[in-house]
Amino acid sequence: MFSLDIIPLDESIIPLSEWISDGIDWLVLNFRDFFQLIKLPVELTLHGITQGLTALPFYIPILLITLIAWKASGKRLALFTLLSFIAIACLGLWEATMTTLAMVIASVVFCGVIGIPLGVLAGRSPLFEAVMRPCLDAMQTTPAFVYLVPIVMLFSIGNTAGVLATIIFALPPIIRLTCLGIRQVHPELIEAAQAFGASELQVLFQVQLPLALPTILAGLNQTIMMALSMVVIAALIGAGGLGSPVVLGLNTLDTGQAAVGGLAIVLLAVILDRITQSIAKK
Amino acid sequence: MVLQKEKVVVKNLYKIFGQKSDRAFKLLEQNFSKDEIFQKTGLTVGVKDASFTVYEGEIFVIMGLSGSGKSTLVRLLNRLIEPSAGSVIVDGKDVSAMPHNELVKFRLKNMSMVFQSFALMPHLSVLENTAFGLKLAGIPEDQRNQRAQEALEQVGLNGWEHASPEQLSGGMQQRVGLARALAVDPDIMLMDEAFSALDPLIRAEMQDELLTLQEQHKRTIIFISHDLDEAIRIGDRIAIMQHGEVVQVGTSDEILRSPANDYVKSFFKGVDPTNILLASDIVRNNHPTLIITKGGNIRTAQEYLSNSDRDYCYLLNAEKRLLGVVSTESLRDAAEEHSPSAALAHAYLQDVATVNLDDALTEIQPIVASSPCPVPVFNEKQQFKGVISKSRFLRILHKPEQIINQVHEA
User: Is the confidence metric ipTM above 0.85 for this complex?
Assistant: First the structure.
């Protein structure tokens, strides 16, 4: 009888892991400059935002964000924002919170800049969407720990590498929802625009994008939430901010320290979520 | 009909939906039907060999049941759907061969469209929707708003400029759709089942509105409809489509008189004949007439009438103009009052209504109904051509096909 014993089951005969490791090593060796170049705009943006948030006396960002909350939603959210930030400051997490906020804002900016055009393309071209979809699935399901190592190897450690990891993690929802928003525009409206002599760009900017806007903003909200949840994981590769006390707490079994960091993340998440949702509803 | 300028000429236009449409052309050459081609190849023949001409300033209705290809056909005209073969020539220019950027300009300037589902932009106000085409053309804001405002006034929507389309009723939304199409001041308006989504009362109102607008400013309108009453009401000419083919083109009258096939005939079954038939179709010369050259008296008329079994006699002069109408009763009264040898003029009935040969039955209905005698009918030279009696009229309302068939035979 033919035996299947040639497949050992407990050791790999296809050395995929070695190939990948070799591939990354090769990339690091030959394309390090290229990756440093990619890193540059992210680094500059992050640096600028961090500087902006931390250089000011602490009450100015608080008042600014409270004002945004008030304009976007109303008195209740404004009060909640104000109290939350005062609480965070009293917990001694002010600087960590501002670092995290800067990282979230930087990641979301890049997610928007990259994700919205990709989503528009996917929404308008079924072929592009077919190619895009498995990539997005992979980005969303691959455990972040898997790509943290190559990111460290290619971009070294620190806040910028953390933002890059965050961008990969938080990008899919904005692409998916932009695509969905563009798709959902009633075909007859596009036909009407074309019948009146709209060019492709006019159809996009005067019909598709305005009508897809609520859906795109919902995607942006999701992206913000995912970026925040990535912050803790990014701390594993040396990113600062609210992830650090959590990771430190985990490593030293200091429940209190981890919980305080976690609380600040939750407060920040609630504020950002409510603000963006209120804007999306308008 | 006056010789008119050709505005849109459609020549051998085809649309095959699906990949590798050549296969369908081969089968079409071998006279396979639309259904057979679909079964063999999975290709759908949307429009098959459509050819017709639309003249400047007319309302041309393309009519057919759903699935007959009429909505596809209208989209081939402005290339919202690309034709598979054939040409669409507007003002001598071949639209089907235009490069894309030229096509966009052509749509911007020459053609606008009104949609069945209104297709208004929900993110724009009524005014912005109306100005949509003008904005695409790059017209400055104050100018385009002014023109949009004028268009809204034309359709009776002033005061609603800043409302959102969702706040408007269906009829009002389609007025916005109409205003949007009017605002760009196109030579050609395509209307795809524009009034079909509206309830009958509003639909009739919009049809009247369109006719009024057409009186003020003649445009070439290509109107898609599945409703024959609508087609007859607003169409100068009608094209009837079946299975993607244009089976007949003509005025409603021509089509009614000689329908190309049973499909066309079946359309006219439920139709109210008073819309289409004219007085000339039902006039009869079965009443006694007296041609009076000099005088004539009551007695001769009495004798003449008693020999026929009719109650009324129509008195004409040598040019067949009507002098008066007398009845057995009026002759008897006049004979008693004056004398049997008195002039006939004493016996004339008062206020006899008359109609013309080319009056539609709808117009003459109240006249026939209220006239004591059968209504005399005249041609354009005011010559007597016969009469229409109440009973004749009622019979037509009751059994229109019979009369229509008689019309066909004649």
Answer: no
